[in-house]
Amino acid sequence: MGLDDHYVASLKGTILRSLEDAKIIDISHSVRPFDIAEASYHVRSCYQDFPKGTVHVVGVDSEPVINFGGTDGSFPAIMLFDGHYFVSCDNGFFGAFLGEKRPDAFWRIEDILSNENLFTFPTKNVLLKAAFQILNEEDPGSFATPSNSYKSALTPTAITETNLIKGYVIHIDNYGNAITNINRDLFEQFGEETPFVVYFKKKDYFIDVISGAYNEVPQGEKVAIFNANGLMEIAINRGANGSTGGAEQLFGLRVNDMIRVEFTPKGSRTTIESLF
After folding, report:
1. 202: left (phi over 0), alpha (psi -120 to 50) or beta
2. Which of 104 and 203 is assigned the larger pLDDT?
3. CA distance to 98, 157, 169, 171, 180, per residue, from 152 (Å)
4. Among 15, 91, 197, 226, which residue's CB has the most CB atoms within a 10 Å radius?
């Protein structure tokens, strides 16, 4: 919803009016409009830092869709997962957030057709209302319908081939760092001692070592690390200070750009140049 309009203030005022002692933590108000994949990335990356029982309200693309296009629509819904509650429209967020995992419980809020006013500012009028009921210790089953199905937004997945991982940039952070969907576990399947090259955009752009921190390379140099969430990042050390503008500007990396990691098991190739 951004921070230039009154929408966020209206949400927070509604929360404090209903729950005076509520603790409100902002995750982000800068998700691209209707970008469910980006929303799921942000929430998935930080929800475990919150205490169990936290209610996460996701107001991205929150307007319900009822029987649109012959589908069963996108109802507001509640998910219980890993001790946390997630309240969102069932627009693909839940499936994108979970990936291969399954929720502990899932409910659809179907009693919305009786009041058309709920469709105006649904984050406030529908999702927050459900959050209040959960925080007031109401059983979600008393006001929502249990369900075993939910939608999943299309999100790029890293794939493996012989001696190769093909991944994608899924987020560009505030420092211009390109965060990929290549996780440490997938990378380490090829062996910790196996030589590799990470390359992107052009054959001239490559990295052949994973650093433990940005400062392991000189200022202004390219670096690859696995971040706190176990995802590979391609960055420029201190590139966001205005000297280079980070990996986004220097390399022209954008969301959905492919990142390739080629491994060279012993005896297969001898030089970096031979990879290209």
Report:
1. beta
2. 104
3. 9, 13, 19, 18, 19
4. 91
Both tokens assigned to 275: 């990879």
Distance separating the N- and C-terminal Cα atoms of the chain: 44
Contact 66, 123 (CB under 8 A): no
Name the CATH architecture for the domain at 159-275. Answer: Beta Barrel (2.40)
The whole-angstrom separation of Cα 170 and Cα 44 is 13
Buried b (16+ CB within 10 A) or exposed e, 227-248: eeeebbbbbbbbbbeeebebbb
Q: What is the pLDDT of residues 211-259, one digit of tens each?
A: 999 999 998 889 999 999 999 999 998 876 544 567 888 788 899 999 9
Give span(s): CATH 3.40.50.10790, the chain: 7-146
Outline which parts of the chain fall under CATH 2.40.30.90.
159-275
Neighbours of 195 (CB within 10 A): 18
Q: Is the dihedral of CA 6, 11, 14, 16 positive or negative?
A: negative
Question: Which residue(s) pair with 167 in the sheet?
Answer: 259
For the chain, give the number of residues.
276
Confidence of residue 70 (pLDDT cuts 50, 70, 90): very low
For residue 114, the model assigns a pLDDT of 67
Please name the CATH architecture into which domain 7-146 falls. Answer: 3-Layer(aba) Sandwich (3.40)
